[in-house]
Amino acid sequence: MSYIFTKLFGYLRLMRPANILTAITDIMAGVAISGFLLAGYGDTQSVLQFLCLIFATIGLYGGGVVFNDVFDAKLDRTERPERPIPSGIISRTEAIVLGVYLLVLGVIGAFSVGEVPGIIALGIAVAALVYNKWGKHHAVLGPLNMGLCRGLNLLLGMSVVPGSIPYTGWFALVPVLYIAAITMISRDEVHGGKKRPLQLAAAGYAIVCIVILVQAWVNGKLLEVAPFLAIFLYLIMRPLLAAMKDPSGPKIGRAVKGGIIGLIAMNAAWAAAFASFPYALAVLALLPLSILLSRAFAVT
């Protein structure tokens, strides 16, 4: 029994459960931005479409991070020997099978909603594999590649109403910028780094907040968005400012973790700007669970 538990726990560690919840909130935010919720969202078909996109992002994100560890297995033997593959809990072959299985399920789940979601899901799978194999080794293209994965994930949520994409699709550029900033500073979380990348990340965060505030103002929902944006700023800026004072590996690691977990609050702000306040609260409700899971499972 202990062997089975160890294996299952190892597979979960590969999938980064706390991170998967942030991907689910991407879909929830994208669905809100698309205007899907304004159409009623009460019939069985609508509920199934929503659930299939949630299912799809779980597979796509889970598969993507599994392949991150697959391609990093050799480096992790030195830098992170406690991870499932270098520690021997999960073999590299087992991880590859899991990663392929998750990505395929994610793409199938998206195609079950429609052709546009399916094509976007394929784009996410390809972008994730390109990043894990080649992108992460490039100083500029790497962060943008990683950001593209998250931007496409938000777009996947919007694709529940394909006709909305020509009008709202550009919002997907916001998570591209945000995740690119996080990815840029994450490269120093093992050995420490300099303040400059952290300052650039802060500038990127500021742009993200400005875009959300402007859209909230345009939609007449500044008051609804403000509390979610305040939580978002607290989650991302507190560890980032600490890392600016002391850019050591552990401090930068906490800044990266705060940035990833903070995605849930950011997506709640998007939801508040385009949907009802209770729906935004439902998005934010995943934050405590993600924080709890981040204590048991690594985020980076």
From TrEMBL:
The chain crosses the membrane at residues 20-41, 47-68, 89-110, 167-186, 198-219, 225-243, 255-273, 279-298. Keywords: Cell membrane, Membrane, Transferase, Transmembrane, Transmembrane helix. CDD domains: PT_UbiA_1. The keyword Protein biosynthesis does not apply. It is found in: Membrane. GO terms for cellular component: membrane. Its main location: membrane. Coiled coil: none annotated. It is a multi-pass membrane protein. The keyword NAD does not apply. GO terms for molecular function: transferase activity, transferring alkyl or aryl (other than methyl) groups. NCBIfam families: prenyl_rel_EboC. This is Transferase.
